[in-house]
Every structure is written in C-alpha cells, then in structure tokens.
Amino acid sequence: MSAQEIRHDWTVEEVLGLLDRPLNDLLFEAQAIHRRRHPANEVQISTLLSIKTGGCPEDCKYCPQSVHYDTGVDTHNVLPVEDVVTAAGRARAAGATRFCMGAAWRAPTNSQTSRVSELVRAVKATGMETCVTLGMLTAEQARELADAGLDYYNHNLDTSPEYYGEIITTRSYQDRLDTLAHVRAAGVNVCCGGIVGMGESRTDRAGLLAQLANLPEHPESVPINNLVQVEGTPLHGTDTLPPLELVRCVAVARILMPGSVIRLSAGRTELSDEAQALCFMAGAGSIFCGDRLLTTPNPEFNDDMEMFEDLGLAAQPL
To answer: Distance between CA atoms of 176 and 187, rounded to whole angstroms?
Structure first.
C-alpha cells in the first residue's frame, strides 16, 4: 500500500463492512498488507511494569486500580530508580526491546512528571526503548518527557465515542485526543489502541477502529486489548468476546493502519495458542511478555517463547 493510499477518512460503515467480511478473505488481505510493510515472522516484545499502583480517581469500569472499586489491589507509590532499572534489565535479558512503565494517575503533577523523566533516562541507559502511560498530559509535560528521551507514550481511546460514556465518566473523549495531540507535537511516538469485550457492539468496535485510523497521523503502535475481567469492577461478569472477533479486530486494524505495529495486548491468558496464531496471521506484530500487565496476569516469557518456536516466529532483536 503506497503512501497516497493511506487514509484518514474511514466511515464507521466502511469499517463495519471489513469486520463483516468472510474471515478467510479478511485474513488474506491483512496478511498481504502486513508482509508488504513489516517482517513476516518477527514479533516485537515489550514488557510492562506498574511503577505506581492503585489509588486512581478515574472510574474506568474495567480498571482494578480505580478508587471507586474494591479489587484488593496492593497500592504503592512510584518505585525507586534502582528497582525499575533492575526490572528493565531482566526484561532485556528475556528478549524484550521496549520497556513500558505505567502509573495509575488521572494526570501527573509536574513533579511526578519529572520523577518519571528520571526513570526514562535510567531505562534508556540500558539500551531499551521506553514507553510510559501516565494519564493526561499537558503540552509542557509531553515536551519534558520528550527531552528525557521517551520513545513512546501510551494513551488509549478505549472504545468508540458513542460507547465511551458507558465505560468512563471522569474523563472525556476529547481529553484523550488532546493528550495525543500534545504527545505528537512533542515528537514522541504514539501508542494508542483500545479494549474490546466490554459489552460493546460490533458497530462500536468499528467506531473505535475508525477513530484510530482517522487520527491526523496513525499511531506507531496500536494495542488491541481483550478485556481482562477483574472481580470487583463493574465489567466483571460481562459476556466474553469470541476469540475470532478479536482476530477480526486485529485484521481490520492492520488494513486500516498499514504502517502501524499492531500489538496483541491484554487478555492473552484467555486465548489458546491457536487463537493467538490467527492474530499473528491477521497482522499482529507485537506482544507484551512477562507474567504481569500492571495488575493483571499475562503469559510467562517461557510460554511465549515455546509458542514462538511452534509457530516459527522470532523475537525482534534489539
């Protein structure tokens, strides 16, 4: 797909039409696009560490770190630099090339941003790419993180604008778009995706994918998260999304955003190796490795490496 074919004007109806296609046709097109723009059998590995856990004032109905829900999460303040660097070293030794740090804030203060900037510099010194997710940022905070050498900032749209109010009331959709604009203006790569399986309709999933594809620039990284249901959160007990619907979402994300790296993110513990194999066929080129994703479970490194061997996949080198 040439540069002039990359679109930012997708309608929800067009995206829904892609999601409705026969699965074989959808996978064929997605895999063909993936091979034109990305290594066919190589997967980028990231590791995610919660550097500040719990106590978030937001009311995101999926999140165990919200103060609004009793989920038994152990809270802690920002981890010491040496602990974060040690965790980054372990991740690099296991094959990760990007180290992602998450803090449960609605929006960091300037002093908290400076603290994270110190962590970014320390992790960068290990030779790894860096990514953080801290909530909403001002333009000045985005520039400070950029000056520290931050490679990626994660800020998901979560779902469609129409379904958003069913999931979150403490932050608007425009708030999220504003933060993405600040990050982009600061010259930091954007990591932005969403969550499926939160009780939304297929039309809402199409709406999320259309929003991502219609951003002024496509995110460099697009995480597709499958809801991890946590007891105590309002979404616990939601009907589970069929695995093939997740595969369809990955494939459509690949078609809409051909240059982006599509990451198969949260919820992999609920997927069989066969379902994950279909996601890689659909164009997923990145995963999170390690036994935790902030506060929820994730497959072990060794399990993922065994799956890679079975599928003939290789971890992207540093």
So the answer is: 17
Task: State phi, psi for 278 to the nearest 5 degrees.
Answer: -65, -35
98 carries an active-site annotation: no
Which of the residues 56, 192, 249, 289 is marked catalytic?
Answer: 56
Which residue segments constitute the domains of the chain, with CATH numbers given?
3-306 (3.20.20.70)
Please give the pLDDT value at position 77: 87
Point out the catalytic residue in the list 98, 176, 184, 191: 191
- pLDDT value of position 64: 87
Length of the chain measured in residues:
318
Active site residue 279: no
Amino acid letter for position 308: F
Which of 172, 168, 173 lies closest to 61, judged by CA?
A: 168
The predicted structure's pLDDT at residue 293: 53
Cβ-contact 101, 91 below 8 angstroms: no
How far is the C-alpha of 277 from the C-alpha of 49, rounded, in Å? 25
Tell me which of 98, 131, 176, 268 is the catalytic residue. 131
User: 68 falls in which pLDDT band (50, 70, 90)?
Assistant: confident
Q: What pLDDT, on a 0 to 100 scale, did the predictor assign at position 55?
A: 83
Q: Is 249 a catalytic residue?
A: no
Annotated catalytic residue, options 100, 192, 249, 289: 100
Interatomic CA distance for residues 207 and 174, integer angstroms: 15
Catalytic residue among 254, 263, 279, 289: 263
Distances (CA, A) of 6 to 37, 213, 252, 257, 315: 12, 9, 14, 7, 28
